[in-house]
Amino acid sequence: MINVKQKFIEFFTTHPRNHREIPSSPLVPENDPTVLFITAGMHPLVPYLLGEPHPLGKRLVDVQKSMRTDDIEEVGDLSHFTFFEMLGNWSLGDYFKKEAIFWSFEFLTGKKWLGLDPKRIYISVFEGDGNAPMDNESTLYWKDAFAAAGITAELGHPKQGVIGNARIFPYPKTKNWWGPAGQTGPCGPDSEMFYDTGLQVHDTKVHGPICHINCNCGRYLEVWNDVFMQYNKKTDGAFEKLAQQNVDTGMGHERVTAILEWLEGKVSEPDPFQTGLFKNIISSLESLSGKKYDGMYKRYMRIVADHVRSASFVISDGVMPGNKERGYILRRLIRRAVRFGRLLGINGLFMKTLSEIVIKDYQTDYMELNKNSKVITDTIGMEEKKFGNTLGRGLKELDKYQVLTGKIAFDLYQSFGFPWEMTAEIARERTQKIEKKLFEEEFKKHQELSRTAAKGTFKGGLQDQSEKTTKLHTATHLLQQTLRVVLGKHVRQKGSHITAERLRFDFSHPRKLTDEEIDKVEQIINEKIKDNLPITTEILTLDEALVKGALTVPEARYPEKVKVYSVDNFSKEVCGGPHVGFTGKLGTFKIIKEEAAGNQIRRIYASLTG
Ligand code: SER
């Protein structure tokens, strides 16, 4: 079997590409209020795309864990996942379109690399609009790359489909533009590579009159995306040119693996769920259910397999099931998997067994799975048990009604723990529709959380690197050091989360803080603010940073070279930034609340005013 990840890293780290490998960031972004999960490799790299120097230089390569749950109900086909692994190479103001395109082509088609037949590769480019011109440059480089392989590649038109030598097709922003994932931030035109499976699956009634590379019929599979990040979308909607031209590429590991195993004849269709990535989970599902991975059971098994893999990874990055934000998404994943397990005819507990398989299959690449294996399997097992008890009764209750209303959806949520989305999905299976508004009205009546905020956050995307969050980030560093001064050196960061309004800081400490301690912490921080201390940064190897006493987050993984932020000689932390230049900018620091956040872990909410 071709180890795609290994090849990718090898290709990009060797001469003349000379990239440096960076570890995957956790799925839960640090200090970013606007997204629940990392949804793409660019996300943790935004400061560097905007021009901050990266400790490892201008050429990076990584395999980033990512989570997208916008399309959760699409999972079950050949191409949708919630959790996935994204392979990417990065130029931070170094090489641009030419190298990116030639290297993409070489990696896809080179005999030493993936060895795909170049005749089966098709390309899309940005067609241009009022914000940015047609990407003629990429078109030319692609033509050259194909020519070197003896193939004449011409610009075609999607409306005419794949005819003659047409191999490169222009599409609008909806298809060939990437980012910003949030309201503002780095973005640019992209160029995608497709593999022609040759499968005759186009159905004009479903997929449109003409089969073209982006028509979604499944004949042409997108394998890789080269993004040329050269713009910054500003709050007023304008696109300004970035000071540096970046490259961000993303290759979906699952998709590429499926194509390769299919070409090797290992699987019957380019189906990621039949590949080595999922086959142990699927075969365990087959034996648990006594059903074959076939017909309608394929969809059910894919859903369970995808969700159990996601849930395991999400828990390993510190999320617990709950009623809000990340916890809610995790709960939804587990409960949805349990329901589809029932539809497969599995009546006993099964999720824990499956999560054990995920851990076993993925622990070599992700040591956090092994490290947290007990917490993963226990959490999944407990959540399954809890929901398993009420699922059957809830479904019976649900069956009593001909028409499902918002009130019923709410009662199912309240009494049987049915996530709203699950009831809505069941309604759709019965070809009914429930208005979310009605459910939310019931919800509000009960003074519980509104999911709207969480949804907004989730869709929101990248952080607007606003001044307020930057200030709170610097305040977080002051807080950690001050807690160590006041409470002792055992204090270490356990979690951090910042919104424009407040910071939240979790740290190791065995008991509640006294009023005196809280006063003292506030007083010291406000003194440090008044002293207007400078914040400086340096790039060191991780060892040097540790020797110099820089604090790290115990659970985090770091590359060999890191950035260290110091607040004068008061605090020193390994951190990606950004921070303010002087503490005088912060205003007045105030602790809003102090509470328990787990066994031997305390949580502080604090804000800055003025
Ligand atoms: N950001 C781009 C994507 O997610 C390329 O990495 O497709």
TrEMBL record:
GO terms for biological process: alanyl-tRNA aminoacylation. InterPro entries: aa-tRNA-synth_II/BPL/LPL (IPR045864), Ala-tRNA-lgiase_IIc (IPR002318), Ala-tRNA-ligase_IIc_anticod-bd (IPR018162), Ala-tRNA-synth_IIc_core (IPR018165), Ala-tRNA-synth_IIc_N (IPR018164), Ala-tRNA_ligase (IPR050058), Ala_tRNA_ligase_euk/bac (IPR023033), Thr/Ala-tRNA-synth_IIc_edit (IPR018163). Signal peptide: none annotated. One of its GO terms (cellular component) is cytosol. It is found in: Cytoplasm. It is an enzyme of class 6 (ligase). Keywords: Aminoacyl-tRNA synthetase, ATP-binding, Cytoplasm, Ligase, Metal-binding, Nucleotide-binding, Protein biosynthesis, RNA-binding, tRNA-binding, Zinc. Zn(2+) binds at residues 473, 477, 575, 579. SMART domains: tRNA_SAD. It catalyses: tRNA(Ala) + L-alanine + ATP = L-alanyl-tRNA(Ala) + AMP + diphosphate. One of its GO terms (molecular function) is zinc ion binding. NCBIfam families: PRK01584.1. This is Alanine--tRNA ligase. It comes from Candidatus Gottesmanbacteria bacterium CG1_02_37_22.
